[in-house]
């Protein structure tokens, strides 16, 4: 295959609305980025990240050095958790405002980068809270520049305009999303070397997140041929290289192509949007904030495939062929496709069901309610290839128990 001809140690630039540096050693591009932003007058930045992985993966060594060499002041907020909270964004925003930050750097996976995108907006709107932003109590029109240092291969947030933050204040259990054209990162770094320390579980969960992005994006009511093309390549690369990364986490070739696949999956759903799996997962991790997003998606995916297959059999047969071979693209194959997806998930070590995670029959009513009341999820439901009724949502949850 052509992948063997690609020099993964040469950093190449992927141009789109975000300029992405991809390759082993891409983290060193932070020196060029720091120099450039200083020349543009950005001399103060807020850094948003998790508790320790930004140091353990090696990214911080380069970032701190680049900022100090270019005399860029910074504050560090390192309290972001998986499924980040609006209150964490508020805390980081307070630090950014006190410094007078002119840009925001996010270091990590989807949670820190989404938090960075949110801080970049909220710094410019001191009269509002992050909960106001995610509950659509105001519509922003501007943002500080964002630089994304990506350390996982799953979310695609380094390449798109989306951000997700949980609002758990005042008894709420919301996990909404926002998407604005000014929220694309200015620069992103995708360096597979930063991902070799990802544990097996996170390697699988983040990759499954990317699989879900494209299975949804290529089957929405607004999908495009471009989204279908990106979906096919994402699934092919994930199917080929995820087993290698699970076997040997330091396999840089595997990490490289999983990172690339995740990035184009982000571009895929930036174009084709998402629908049921993400709309139904957000309430799961709102109720259980410690639930890994990719695991939540994995538990729902077979049931979603089963229920939407008859509406998009030709597309799904083609896109899923690397993990579910011999699908012919006929409506009658829904059960075969769903079972094939479940079997593939089990092969990569993900066997859990909603019941295993503590969800029970009595939780379904609350979950269904959250699907239809969480701000922004109506936009995902509106992209569903089949009518997104409460009966359908309940059915998917029940089949996933």
TrEMBL record:
Pfam families listed in its UniProt record: ADH_Fe_C (PF25137), Fe-ADH (PF00465)
Gene Ontology MF term list: alcohol dehydrogenase (NAD+) activity; metal ion binding
InterPro entries, alphabetized: ADH_Fe/GldA, ADH_Fe_C, ADH_Fe_CS, AdhA-like, Alcohol_dehydrogenase_Fe
UniProt entry tagged with the keyword NAD: yes
Key word Oxidoreductase present: yes
UniProt keyword annotations, A-Z: NAD, Oxidoreductase
Domain (Fe-containing alcohol dehydrogenase-like C-terminal) ranges: 203-400
CDD domains xrefs: Fe-ADH-like
Chain ranges of the Alcohol dehydrogenase iron-type/glycerol dehydrogenase GldA domain: 18-192
Superkingdom of origin organism: Bacteria
Protein family according to the UniProt entry: Belongs to the iron-containing alcohol dehydrogenase family.
Protein name stated in the entry: Alcohol dehydrogenase, class IV
Organism: Paramaledivibacter caminithermalis (strain DSM 15212 / CIP 107654 / DViRD3)
């Amino acid at each position: 295959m052509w992948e063997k001809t690609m020099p993964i140690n040469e950093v190449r630039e992927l141009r789109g609305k975000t300029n992405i540096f991809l390759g082993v050693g891409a983290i060193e591009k932070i020196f060029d980025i720091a120099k450039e932003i200083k020349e543009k007058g950005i001399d103060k930045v807020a850094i948003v990240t998790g508790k320790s992985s930004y140091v353990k993966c090696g990214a911080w060594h380069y970032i701190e050095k680049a900022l100090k060499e270019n005399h860029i002041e910074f504050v560090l907020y390192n309290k972001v958790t998986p499924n980040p909270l609006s209150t964490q964004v508020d805390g980081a925003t307070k630090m950014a405002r006190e410094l007078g930050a002119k840009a925001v750097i996010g270091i990590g996976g989807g949670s820190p980068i989404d938090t960075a995108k949110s801080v970049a907006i909220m710094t410019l709107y001191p009269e509002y809270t992050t909960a106001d932003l995610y509950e659509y109590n105001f519509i922003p029109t501007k943002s500080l520049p964002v630089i994304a240092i990506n350390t996982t291969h799953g979310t695609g947030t380094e390449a798109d305009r989306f951000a997700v933050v949980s609002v758990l204040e005042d008894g709420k259990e919301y996990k909404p999303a926002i998407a604005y054209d000014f929220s694309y990162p200015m620069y992103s770094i995708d360096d597979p070397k930063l991902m070799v320390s990802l544990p097996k579980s996170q390697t699988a969960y983040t990759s499954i997140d990317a699989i879900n992005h494209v299975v949804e994006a290529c089957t929405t009511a607004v999908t495009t041929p471009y989204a279908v093309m990106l979906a096919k390549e994402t699934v092919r690369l994930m199917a080929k290289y995820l087993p290698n990364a699970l076997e040997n986490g330091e396999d840089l070739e595997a990490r490289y192509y999983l990172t690339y696949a995740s990035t184009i999956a982000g571009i895929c759903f930036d174009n084709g949007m998402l629908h049921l799996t993400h709309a139904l997962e957000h309430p799961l991790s709102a109720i259980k904030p410690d639930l890994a997003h990719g695991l939540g998606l994995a538990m729902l995916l077979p049931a979603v495939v089963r229920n939407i297959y008859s509406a998009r059999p030709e597309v799904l047969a083609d896109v899923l062929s690397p993990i579910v071979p011999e699908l012919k693209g006929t409506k009658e194959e829904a059960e075969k496709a769903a079972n094939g997806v479940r079997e593939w998930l089990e092969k990569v070590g993900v066997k859990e069901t909603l019941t295993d995670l503590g969800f029970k029959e009595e939780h379904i009513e609350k979950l269904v309610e959250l699907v239809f009341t969480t701000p922004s999820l109506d936009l995902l439901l509106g992209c569903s290839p089949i009518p997104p009724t409460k009966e359908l949502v309940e059915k998917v949850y029940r089949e996933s128990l």
